[in-house]
Amino acid sequence: MEAMPCRNQRLGPAPGPQDEQQPPVVLAAAAGGGGGGGCSRLIRFAEPDEGGESSPSPDSSSGSNNDGGVLVEARSPAAEIGAQLKLLPMNDQIRELQTIIRDKTASRGDFVFSADRLIRLVVEEGLNQLPYTECTVTTPTGYKYEGVKFEKGNCGVSIMRSGEAMEQGLRDCCRSIRIGKILIQSDEETQRAKVYYAKFPPDIYRRKVLLMYPILSTGNTVIEAVKVLIEHGVQPSVIILLSLFSTPHGAKSIIQEFPEITILTTEVHPVAPTHFGQKYFGTD
């Protein structure tokens, strides 16, 4: 009896050589253009540049071609900062959640609800970065299904206090996962990040670590947290940093300090919602 395909197998015809060589660009039809029918947009929101100004959107009139359409190159912050920075694929659902979290008029109930949804999406993708092995199971109808199972030996570490907001999202996906904690605060005199508390599973040096911190502003707090993990025998190459928002400076600082670490976030923007922890826990 034939085996059913697992999620990694492509369904349908494989792409031809021309499909694989197409550059990552976005075509959008300009209003009033003479290029025939409309064209679907693959990316709807332009990424901001380092100066804080937004790049032209697919609806702008700059860069129009002779057919009345607009050709916009898809700029990727991950490509500019490094391959270790991974962004969740943007869609309207994620953009709405980001908007509610950034909206100062949003109620705390809406804020927490949206934050929990976005956290769950980041956690799910973070788990997707972990190694797995292929396996074959038998379905109730007798079919052999070729699937995968994740390898054991993972744990979570939250950077207190805002990182604790992500713990439940991780537990919802991994019921029995062990979670450690790190408390890091800025010294009042030197303004440098200082470690006040750290508690990890005793065998953390054998585990892959999902480090949770929702907002990457300067990156200093995460850098200190990674140093503590290294002191406990954890290699940066097995650390996956889960965050919701990051500034270009924060992501660059972390990757420059630890080139082997992986950062997963939903957005890289010069302005980060630093009010996240206060509003999430109701201390704003």
What does it look like?
This protein has eight helices and 14 strands. Helix 3 (92-102) packs across helix 4 (108-128) and helix 4 crosses helix 5. The relative contact order is 0.14. It starts with 16 loop residues before the first helix and ends with a helix. Strand 6, helix 5 (167-173) and strand 7 (178-186) form a beta-alpha-beta unit. The strands form four sheets. A seven-stranded mixed beta sheet has the order 3-13-11-9-6-7-8, with helices on both faces. It has a three-stranded parallel beta sheet with strand order 10-12-14. The protein has a two-stranded antiparallel sheet with strand order 1-2. Residues 7-15 and 17-74 have low confidence and may be disordered. It is α/β, with parallel strands linked by helices and 284 residues long.
